Amino acid sequence: MASASEPNAFGSVALPLGANQFSDRWNRVAAAEGSWQLERVIAPAQSLDTASQAKFVNAALNRHIAFRPEAGDRWATPAETLGRAAGDCEDYAVAKMHALKALGVSERDLFVTVGRDTAIRQEHAVLLLRAGGRFWVLDNRSDRLIPHGQFRDFTPMVSFLAD
Description:
Elements: H1 23-30, H2 36-42, H3 50-64, E1 66-67, H4 78-84, E2 86-87, H5 89-102, E3 110-117, E4 122-131, E5 134-138, E6 146-147, E7 154-161
Parallel strand pairs: 1-2
Antiparallel strand pairs: 3-4, 3-7, 4-5, 5-6
């Protein structure tokens, strides 16, 4: 049974999961330190409330990072992503997670979620934020925060808690 700290979004229930195909990639990026590039991008959001910080981070990083699909599936740290100003969907989600953590959002409310976009028949990753008693999707394809119930055509496979 899922605890109150685990996401219950997209019509699924979170359960603890041991090592899996994403573990090595996740462990590397989750342990990454912040970067001066990330700090510079998020500085204007320091005094905002959580919802406004999330909106700012989502839009700002969508603008600062050009989408570039990778050969293979190497997840980049925020410093790597911002250093080359490009990345794929996992790189956006990881950078947004680190940005919100740096702004003081609780790690217990941030989930990098990998799933299947059924509309385009590809794997896709987003950041899921719990705020105001709801879950919000931060996606590299939209600058707005999307209530998870309105994020259509997405079937989650695995979510990683930011802590």
